[in-house]
Design a protein that fits this description.
The structure holds 2 protein chains of 2 kinds. Chain A is mostly helical. Chain A is 70% helix and 0% strand. Chain A has one domain: MetI-like fold (Orthogonal Bundle), CATH 1.10.3720.10. Chain A is elongated, with a radius of gyration of 23 Å. In chain A, 41% of the residues are buried. The two termini of chain B are 38 Å apart. Classes of the chains: A mainly alpha, B alpha/beta.
Chain lengths: 284, 681
């Protein structure tokens, strides 16, 4: 029996095709560049600069050739603190995001896969939680648990869970009715297999997009929590914390103690969003 | 195009000789820019449709037929480009028109009907307003526009047009939507209407009605038609002239009757041989197929585009592209050896595999008795299936036909165990009760081949994993044994081993369907439910899949429940046929008897809706829409649409499924002698 040959034109893989499209998007590349810059700062920053070295005689010096970003009240170099301040936020925010995505995906799969009372009950709970502002929720959790990097991760992760779950649920609902799921049922696959091995690989693109979007929010939330004093604790050089410590000084004209940390936060959030946009476009 | 042919056509239609051609495409080259590279789609296309004429453009997917339609309206996608050639609509060069004149042309001269009516209508605007808008553009005032819209909806035979005017598109069925779109397209007199597969996806009965409607309105308005399609039967019915498109080139062209009766290009010959013809029986003769793959214009070879797949190809074919050679009588063929085309050697051997012995006497494999299925819709109970009795014998194919909404898919899902029927229903496979999926013991015994090969395979998994997993679960195989069986299976469905590492999206529709078939055969199945397994495929691919299913049946003695709305296909594959209407079994019996009659009035309507390329059967029109299952008609459920209703007894009393002859049973008050017979010779 003669077998049918492989048509040559169809051989390029989907992943390769998507990567090529991504690398042609300038916005994505700019975003990726900024993120890589901050990641290398987080990894190697402390080898180059010392954010804790103080020079009290030179406090609140404006930006100069010696101190590019000026100095703070204790005479610490703001440039060193901005560079070094990227470390904790770049550990805490991604971990929190991953936790939120993992929990939200699991919950969303269950909600989308079991229509009827399971979905009804869980959906109502999710909606109720979503009605509360994310920040208030995280604040409550942190006040109850006490502030530490681990609790910040847990608080943000848990507050992301319902949002992610809703996105995943919608994706599962459309997949669930496709024939390949029926075919898997016909060979006696368990619900767990159907969710984890049949449906999940097909809804990864929206989950990856959700991940990058959430990462942007996570960075923002980590910084905000630090600013409110329930996140990272002094003297670690953190952007949000630095703004919170120094913002009273703006009235005195010492703008450099706040501006560069704020710009750092903004640049990272924007960069993550640029990457998110690029991925979302390619995932279409 | 010769002047002679031109003059011939002009004189054929009296009084139109002075009007310019409705559409004249000459030397049209179109290409798409894909990832920075230019890919040709159409090459040197010549078409001329006289005013009021009809032209059918047939071809399989990817041959460029829709592109031709789009180009005719200068409506190509952004990456599409007309590289060469002229397009004249009513004498005006479309390619050179400025924007305002082009808008004017689209408003007054040309209109288009697409395949998917749901996407052609604006979902947020009521039907009445959408249709009236056309008249508004034509210069009518609001009151007059609405009045004319109402009249037009009546003319396309929409029941209760006044209430339809107030509805939104999603509240109409697909057939009704398409009728609205056609009403809009033909609302005002046009020179040309382009129909791009207007009936694909509609039921045969609805299709017949929509085509009749187009024909009537076309005649009244003297509109010319460019009909794009893949279905030769439909083209034969609608078009005086036909052009066969292959890889962006017109390979044969001429009067439809002559081309279909005596094709002069090997591709046309092959295409016609792929169709299951009347009188062909899968137990005796296989369908012919066309070897190889459909190329696109971009991947077409240097010589004749069809040479790599042609049984007549010689060296000259591979070197020199043939021109469109005039054959006289307005016909032409792009083949060096057009005279030999009718003698194209067969690709698939005609000899059907040795048929198993007649099993008519065997105990039934599947026995369904008193099957009822009631869905709950809010507080209402909807009876999707009612009192179904049927059986399938070992090695037999039972064809299941009926319009959408008749309960075919529900019946399939119940057999597969995906849906649980009402408690009193009895289903048995080999004498053993058939339980819902969760409690079923032998899962491998009943498997399914789905309609849409794209969604039937998990696109995240490689082919090897899809088949391997089925072998693990259904045959309990592992390790080397699984690998061995997998290779045997894929070779059995004629799939190259290289595909095992590929993902589904790298495969064509036909190859995907082969994978789905291999999966269904993973663990010695007894019964396979085939739900329209070829309706998403091209004609040449359909033939190969039908042959494959027949071969596997002869080899393994499996039974099929074959669901399809294509009666020619059902007739070819089935030993017996069951006809469903609104969840009731209207008729069941041996295929020959069901087709030859006497048959149920509903079967008669279905049969007449698809008369075959020869068009020999007289059409029996079916009025109205299929009634809602929520509130089925009293008495005989078909009485509201029955062309042979005898009187009040039909409205009040449901006829029993009464046995006639040789295992043939019909649910009708009429006697066999009074029921219809096929009128074909």
């Amino acid at each position: 029996m003669s077998a049918v040959g492989l048509p040559a034109a169809r051989r390029t893989t989907l992943g390769f095709e998507r990567l090529r499209l991504l690398l042609r998007s300038p916005a994505f590349l700019v975003g990726l560049g900024i993120i890589l810059f901050w990641v290398s700062c987080a990894l190697f920053g402390r080898l180059l600069v010392d954010p804790l070295a103080d020079d009290i005689l030179n406090s609140l010096a404006p930006p100069s050739a010696e101190h590019w970003f000026g100095t703070d009240e204790l005479g610490r170099d703001m440039f060193a603190r901005v560079i070094a301040g990227s470390r904790d936020i770049l550990v805490v925010a991604p971990l929190a995001t991953l936790l939120g995505i993992a929990l939200g995906t699991a919950l969303g799969l269950v909600m989308g896969f079991f229509p009827g009372w399971v979905d009804d009950v869980l959906s109502r709970i999710v909606e109720a939680v979503l009605a509360l502002p994310l920040l208030i929720l995280a604040l409550l959790a942190l006040t109850a648990l006490g502030a530490s990097n681990a609790t910040v991760v847990a608080a943000i992760g848990l507050s992301f869970m319902p949002i992610v779950a809703r996105t995943v649920r919608a994706a599962v609902m459309t997949e669930r009715n496709l024939d390949y799921v029926a075919a898997a049922r016909l060979r006696g696959e368990s619900a767990l297999h159907l969710m984890g091995f049949e449906i999940l690989p097909n809804i990864l693109p929206p989950i990856v997009v959700e991940l990058t979007v959430r990462l942007g929010y996570a960075i923002f939330t980590v910084a905000t929590l630090s600013f409110l004093g329930v996140g990272l604790q002094p003297p670690s050089p953190d952007w949000g914390l630095a703004i919170s410590e120094n913002y009273a000084l703006i009235g005195g004209g010492y703008w450099w103690t706040v501006l560069f940390d704020a710009l750092a936060i903004a640049s990272l959030v924007i960069a993550v969003n640029l990457v998110a946009d690029g991925l979302a476009e390619v995932a279409e | 195009m010769t002047l002679l042919a031109e003059a011939d056509r002009g004189s054929g239609v009296s009084g139109t000789a002075l009007r310019p051609d409705a559409l004249r495409i000459s030397g049209l080259d179109v290409s798409y820019r894909v990832r920075g590279r230019s890919r040709p789609v159409l090459r040197g296309l010549d078409i001329a449709i006289p005013a009021g004429g009809t032209f059918g453009l047939v071809g399989e997917s990817g041959c460029g037929k829709s592109t031709a339609a789009m180009a005719a309206m200068r409506y190509l996608p952004r990456n599409g480009r007309t590289d060469a050639g002229r397009i004249l609509v009513g004498g005006r060069d479309v390619t050179a028109l400025p924007a305002a004149a082009l808008r004017d042309l689209r408003r007054h001269s040309v209109s288009m009907v697409y395949q998917d009516p749901g996407r052609a209508l604006n979902p947020t605007i009521r039907i009445g307003a959408q249709v009236a808008e056309i008249y508004g553009l034509d210069g009518a005032g609001p009151e007059e526009a609405r009045a004319r819209a109402l009249a037009m909806l009546g003319r396309v035979r929409i029941a209760d047009p006044a209430s339809v005017m107030e509805r939104y598109p999603h509240q109409l069925s697909g057939g009704m939507q398409q009728r609205v779109v056609i009403a809009m397209a033909l609302a005002v007199r046009r020179e040309l209407i382009v129909l791009d597969e207007p009936t694909t996806g509609l039921d045969a009965t609805v299709e017949a009605e929509v085509l009749d409607l187009v024909e009537t309105l076309r005649r009244e308005n003297g509109t010319a038609v460019l009909f794009i399609g893949h279905n030769l039967e439909v083209i034969a019915r609608m078009c005086a002239e036909v052009g066969v498109l292959y890889a962006g080139r017109l390979v044969e062209q001429g009067p439809t009757r002559a081309v279909l009766a005596n094709p002069r290009h090997p591709y046309t010959v092959g295409l016609l041989r792929c169709l299951p013809r009347r009188g062909l029986d899968r137990r005796r003769e296989r369908l012919d197929t066309i070897p190889g793959f459909l190329p696109t214009a971009a991947t077409a070879p240097a010589g004749c585009v069809f040479a790599p797949r042609c049984g007549l190809a010689r060296d000259v074919c591979r070197a020199d592209p043939p021109p469109l050679i005039p054959l006289g009588d307005g016909r032409s063929s792009r083949c060096h050896f057009h005279a030999e085309a009718p003698h194209l050697p067969r690709n698939a051997p005609a000899q059907a595999p040795a048929a198993p012995a007649d099993r008519a006497a065997d105990a039934p494999l599947l026995a369904v008795t008193g099957l009822n299925m009631t869905f709950r819709q809010g507080r209402q109970a909807v009876q999707a299936l009612r009192d179904i009795d049927l059986s399938v014998r070992p090695g037999e194919t039972l064809g299941l036909v009926g319009e959408s909404g008749s309960g075919k898919s529900t019946l399939a899902r119940i057999l597969l165990g995906l849906t649980v029927p009402d408690a009193d229903s009895r289903l048995a496979l080999d004498g053993e009760a058939l339980l819902p999926l969760g409690r079923r013991r032998d899962l491998a015994a009943i498997q399914m081949v789905f309609q849409n090969p794209d969604s039937a395979l998990n696109r995240a998994h490689p082919i090897g994993r899809i088949i391997g997993r089925a072998l693990a679960k259904l045959a309990g195989l592992g390790g080397a044994a699984r690998r061995e069986r997998m290779l045997a299976l894929t070779r059995g469905v004629q799939l190259a081993d290289a595909y095992l590492a590929a993902k589904p999206r790298q495969l064509s529709g036909g190859l995907k369907q082969r994978v789905a078939i291999a999966r269904a055969f993973a663990g010695r199945p007894r019964l396979i439910v085939c739900d329209e397994p070829t309706s998403a495929l091209d004609v040449s691919v359909q033939a190969a899949i039908l042959n494959l299913l027949a071969d596997l049946q002869a080899e393994q003695g499996v039974s099929y429940l074959f669901i399809s709305h294509d009666l020619a296909v059902v007739r070819y594959v089935s030993d017996r046929i069951a006809v469903l209407y609104l969840g009731r079994l209207m008729e069941i019996g041996p295929a020959d008897r069901v087709f030859a009659g006497p048959h149920h009035p509903y079967t008669e309507v279905l049969l007449s809706a698809s008369p075959g390329p020869d068009g020999a059967v007289k059409r029996v029109p079916l009025s109205g829409e299929i009634p809602s299952a929520v509130d089925p008609p009293s008495g005989c459920v078909f009485h509201t649409r029955c062309p042979r209703r005898i009187g009040p007894i039909c409205d009040t009393e449901e006829p029993p499924l009464s046995p006639r002859q040789d295992g043939h049973a019909i649910r009708c008050h009429l006697d066999s002698a009074d029921l219809g017979r096929e009128t074909a010779p």
